[in-house]
Amino acid sequence: MPVRVTLDALILSRGLKARDLAQEVGLSETQLSLFRSGKVKGIRFRTLARLCAALKCRPGDLLDYAFDAADLEAAADEPE
Questions:
Q1: Global confidence as pTM
Q2: Helix (H, G, I), strand (E, B), or coil: what is residue 44?
Q3: How many CB atoms lie within 10 A of CB 38?
Q4: How far are the Cα atoms of 16, 22, 25, 41, 61 from residue 36, in angstroms, in the given order?
Q5: Distance CA 66, CA 27 (A)
Q6: Distance between CA atoms of 55 and 47, rounded to whole angstroms?
Q7: For residues 26 and 24, what is the distance between their CA atoms, to the nearest angstrom?
């Protein structure tokens, strides 16, 4: 998938520990780890907002996207 989670870089640049961030945001370390690794299919906006507040960043700082034309083809195949 061309959407990548860039949370690790942000955690490092802020000099934080993932364990401390998870506690501040109200997530388990396992949940945060799954998000960091990109193994989740989605994230609640409220959780995203809490991460942004704790890291003093914007959602785009946590995610990256590499264009893939196949993303548009897949959308055409899905029912509305």
A1: 0.80
A2: coil
A3: 14
A4: 14, 11, 14, 12, 13
A5: 28
A6: 12
A7: 6
- What is residue 78's predicted lDDT score, i.e. its pLDDT? 60
Contact 21, 15 (CB under 8 A): no
The predicted-structure confidence for 28-51, as pLDDT tens digits, reads as follows 999 999 999 988 888 999 999 999
The token pair at 70 is 């196949």
65 touches 2 (CB < 8 A) = yes
Distance (Å, whole) CA 72 – CA 80: 14
Rounded to an integer, what distance in angstroms lies between the CA atom of residue 47 and that of residue 29? 14
- The token pair at 40 is 């989740």
How does residue 56 score in pLDDT terms, banded at 50, 70 and 90?
very high
**Tell me, what amino acid is at 33?**
S
Spatial distance between the Cα atoms of 20 and 24, rounded to a whole number of angstroms: 6
Average predicted confidence (pLDDT) for the chain: 89
